[in-house]
Amino acid sequence: MNTVKIIGAGLAGCEAAYQLSKRGVAVDLFEQKPLVYSSAHKLNGFAELVCSNSLKSLDKYSASGLLKFELEHFDCLLLKLAKKVSVDAGSALAVDRVAFSQLVTETVRKLSNLTVYHQTVRKIDCNTPTIIATGPLTEGDLGCQLSSMCDGFLDFFDAVSPIVEYESIDMQYAFKSNRYDKHQGIEQETSDCKGQQLEGDYINCVLDKQQYELFYSELIKAERVQQKYWENIPFFESCMPIEVIASRGLDTMRFGPMRPVGIIDPKTSRRPYAVLQLRKENTQGNLYNLVGFQTSLKFGEQSRVFGLIPALKNAEYVRYGVMHRNSFINAPKVLNKSFEMKNFPAIFVAGQLSGVEGYVESIMSGLIAGINMANRLKDKPKFDLPSTTMCGALTDYLTRQNDNFSPINANFGILPPLDITIKDKKMRKAAMAERALIDLPVLYDA
Questions:
Q1: Of 283 and 247, which is predicted with more confidence?
Q2: Of 321, 350, 382, which one is at a domain's C-terminal end?
Q3: How far apart (Å, rounded) are the C-alpha atoms in residues 429 and 218?
Q4: How many distinct structural domains can be found in the chain?
Q5: Which residue range forms the structural domain that includes residue 203?
Q6: Can you tell me the distance from the alpha carbon of 395 to that of 162, in angstroms, rounded to the nearest whole number?
Q7: Is residue 444 in a domain?
Q8: Across the strands, what pairs with 341?
Q9: What number of other Cβ atoms are within 10 A of residue 300's Cβ?
Q10: Residues 148 and 171 placed together within one structural domain of the fold
Q11: 3-state helix, strand, coil in the chain (%, to 5)
């Protein structure tokens, strides 16, 4: 049996390596770090999380939670490891980034039939079974060849949130709680708490109307990093820089990252005018991420403008927000549901480069690509999931004819409608999730 070449030891590449290894397929895993780093990567290890440390909701009746549940059904390695290094984040799965990367690196290196090569791959051999999982910053000779094979890349901007030290947050203007008091998967209506909240996992930095309007006015005129030759590339909607959101209107942030819904200030027993939430970045709890505050502001401007939020007046930044270009292939024209290239059947593409968006979605693509590569080498049928499952719906979206293709996160809108009409939105999503769980196939060789 041929050895499979995996290029890139990110989320998708590591998950694909595990799925192949457990099926007895030899893997050569190529990773250019620590010899070469992209503009967004800093850690030496595998599976580095860049934009956020959150893998989103664990609730199986949410889109992201359902996706996780399905992946765990198929023995997803990276979700197992993520739970071992999780940090408190209410009903979400967030991890200590450094610990997660270290654990994934150690675990993958110990896989049977796997050899790791630290070198930059510059050429694709179209006759060698290969999974390309080089991420959205793929460039150089490899990027040029893949672009040619795919009839060009598509691009969008992605932005990263700042991280501050816990000790520098002024808790006189902040408090700890989860939205709607969601804590460890339990939801309790805040309105029933009468201001007496259990300490939660998020730090809520509150602003009154005057403070918010001052922050808004300075944010929209703050100096940004010049986009240079990328200036005509669009932003991905769910990673929109906070200053771009603000430019759409005075109250836009209050319906987005700074929404106060579900939060009660214990000092006033009332909902604040606006709130910025901070989420733990590591297990020690000494670093916090500014949730939803991806930004392209210059570093000095970030300190000045974000310092107008009272709790962050004296904040110490360990990482400022940055913006970078992301690339992805035109999946509907290039890939089939196996993540196999239509015109190059020995080549698979996984991760954000394939057109999925999000950490868990990238893991999913690696899992499916790995299983299908193993099945291809063993002359087994393709691993094709029903469209009623979140995994199946995502692969359907990637491969369905679409003249305006763009990356997408897991969401209930891509699932087929139910056979019955359910008006209540929450009950409808629950019914879709239950249908997906029933329709999940069994992997007999898993």
A1: 247
A2: 321
A3: 40
A4: 2
A5: 163-321
A6: 32
A7: no
A8: 335
A9: 11
A10: no
A11: 35, 20, 45
